[in-house]
Amino acid sequence: MATFRLARRLRCARAVDAMSDAQLAVLSTLHMHGRRTITALAERERVTAPSMTSMINGLEEQGYVRRTADEEDRRRVQVEITDAGTAIVAETIQRRDELLAAMLAEQDFTADELRTLREASALMRKVVEG
């Protein structure tokens, strides 16, 4: 339950208030893993391809992603993040890092407790990135 509560508080810190968590997740995936097809993005985010297409359309209209022809199969389309999209991801990460740092600073953690939090964070990342 604590993980859910922490995630909810951190989700409030974002570069663009009008952007949904799902849109930000897609931008983050493209930022971290590079170009992807709409099908691959839909599978990763566990949504239908039509839902992902709609989301990509919105992100493309805002200038955060662009579609490009696949180099191996011209019938297939790849989606890649733009500089504007990268800036949104970077600013959101910075805001969330600052919020988490402030939340941690409010506590009186020992060096051992902070080390435990870092270790737990690494383990949680492994679970999420599976």
Features:
single chain, about 130 residues, mainly alpha, Arc Repressor Mutant, subunit A, 3-stranded antiparallel sheet
Q: What is the CATH C level class, in words?
A: Mainly Alpha
Which strand order do you get reading across the main beta sheet? 1-3-2
CATH topology: Arc Repressor Mutant, subunit A
CATH superfamily annotation: Winged helix-like DNA-binding domain superfamily/Winged helix DNA-binding domain
Give the overall form. Answer: elongated
The N- and C-terminal alpha carbons lie at a distance of 21 Å
Q: How many domains in all?
A: 1
What is the element layout, followed by pairings?
Layout: H1 2-11, H2 21-33, E1 36-37, H3 38-45, H4 49-61, E2 65-69, E3 77-81, H5 83-105, H6 111-129
Antiparallel strand pairs: 1-3, 2-3
How would you sum up this structure, described in words?
The chain has one domain: Orthogonal Bundle (Arc Repressor Mutant, subunit A), CATH 1.10.10.10. Strands 1-3-2 form a three-stranded antiparallel β-sheet. The longest helix is centred in the C-terminal third of the chain and has 23 residues, at 83-105. Helix 2 (21-33) crosses helix 5 and helix 3 (38-45) crosses helix 4 (49-61). The chain has helices at 2-11, 21-33, 38-45, 49-61, 83-105, 111-129; strands at residues 36-37, 65-69, 77-81. It contains six helices and three strands. With 130 residues, the chain is mainly alpha-helical. 66% of the residues lie in helices and 9% in strands.
TL;DR?
This protein has helices at residues 2-11, 21-33, 38-45, 49-61, 83-105, 111-129; strands spanning 36-37, 65-69, 77-81. The protein has one domain (2-129): Arc Repressor Mutant, subunit A, CATH 1.10.10.10. It is mostly helical.
